[in-house]
Amino acid sequence: MLLTLVYRSHISDSVRPASLAEMVSRANIENERRSITGILLFEGMHFFQLLEGPEEAVDAIYSKICSDQRHNNVVVLMRDYAPSRRFGNVGMELFDLRHHHEDVVLQAVLDKGTSKYRLTYEDRALQFLCTFVQAREKENYLEILPADAWSFIADEPLKPEAGFIFPEMKDYNFTFQPIVDPLSREIISYEARLCGPGGGSPMEYFSALSGSNIYEADLRSKKLAFALARKMGIGDKMLSIKLLPMTLVRVPDAIGFLLREIVAHDLVPEQIIVAITENGVATREDNFATALQQLKASGMRLAVDDFGAGSAELLLLTRCQPDKIMIDRNMICDIHTSGPKQAIIQAIIRLCSSLEISVIAAGIEKPEEWMWLDAAGVCNFQGPLFASPRLNGAPAVTWPEIKQEYTLMNQNL
């Protein structure tokens, strides 16, 4: 199968641009040996390359490209399949944009196209190339430091009182995980997630229930979340609890129950965030909208959880106007290398900025994911990079500290 792969990267400081001709000459030999064709552009700081060939061969070359120290911040812009090659007669050709006008470069690229695959400006790969040549997306080239530029230093965890126990703990528990602003070293809130007695999935608990009992159990379980939060001593920090969307509709006086339990555990409504997903919201829409209005009127905040995992979140934003959204882990995984994910997340950030909705990036595992999202404008994060969930207690937070040798580099980015 013929694969087309397009990527962008940043030249390393140690590389002399004068050495590019020799680099391309070697790449040309290797590409011809592997039956790979392509175009390489360079504008003094960034590379843009289009590679075509058998999928296994392109993937092998790209793996070597990613480990090449002569460049960094490698981002895949397009990975697609085509019926025939765009550049059948080229092993690797360099176009140095510092020495040629953009119109000359674009025409030269068009001239290199094969007769079988007539290049037009409707071709996606060529559109990416045009965008790079014309520098139309340069403000979105977010450069980040290497992962080893940071050390992560752990704080002490919040611990509940020794020996405490609640009757509900035989049926279910809660894990707690902080949401943090890493550079300010501030815990923004704690998220309490329902789990089975041993810390397993919520389904471990819900699977033994049926019908409306599920919604009743979902609501009443939050009494334990509030009790644990008080025992941990969260002070004036916010506490996020997750509810099944229809719990607010199916259980009479659900909001009244939450308010009574909040007060009973020395908390205030304004520090409680109720997180929902769009799953199950489509039924009884009027009742659901009324419940959300009552929730906001009570002083509690509203968040949309796992944003990006379902299919109706944008419609949900028009209906409920949440205070916060938590972007799903699958949208964030390796975002520093994925052009499509970067474009989507940047659009979400712009959308939420227009609506004054706070964005939380959930499931952060790698320093590069955090750095890219921070550069894109996200301030609040959750994930094992900073703290993993802890059963019935808040874990220690590991705060990032930049290593001295990278301080100046960070100022230049």
Would you mind describing this structure in some detail?
By secondary structure, the protein is α/β, with parallel strands linked by helices. The chain is elongated and about 75 Å long. The chain has two domains: 2-140, Alpha-Beta Plaits, CATH 3.30.70; 147-412, EAL domain (TIM Barrel). It has helices at residues 20-33, 55-66, 102-112, 124-133, 202-206, 212-220, 222-232, 247-250, 254-264, 285-297, 313-320, 329-332, 339-355, 367-376, 407-412; strands spanning 2-11, 37-42, 46-54, 71-81, 93-96, 150-154, 173-181, 186-195, 238-242, 272-276, 301-307, 324-327, 358-361, 380-381, 390-391, 398-402.
Question: How many domains in all?
Answer: 2
Under CATH, the topology of the largest domain can be stated as TIM Barrel
Helix/sheet category: alpha/beta
Q: Unreliable segments (pLDDT under 50, ≥5 consecutive)? A: none
Distance between the termini: 39 Å
| Residues in β-strands, percent | 15-25%
- Give me the side-by-side strand order of the main sheet: 14-13-12-11-10-9-8-7-15
Quick one: biggest sheet? 9 strands, mixed
What is the number of E strands?
A: 16
- Separate helix tally: 15
Mean pLDDT: 87
| Principal-axes shape call | elongated
Report the top-level CATH class of the largest domain: Alpha Beta
- The helix content, as a percent range, equals 25-40%
CATH architecture of the largest domain: Alpha-Beta Barrel
> Any idea what the CATH superfamily of the largest domain is called?
EAL domain
Q: What Rg do the Cα atoms give?
A: 26 Å
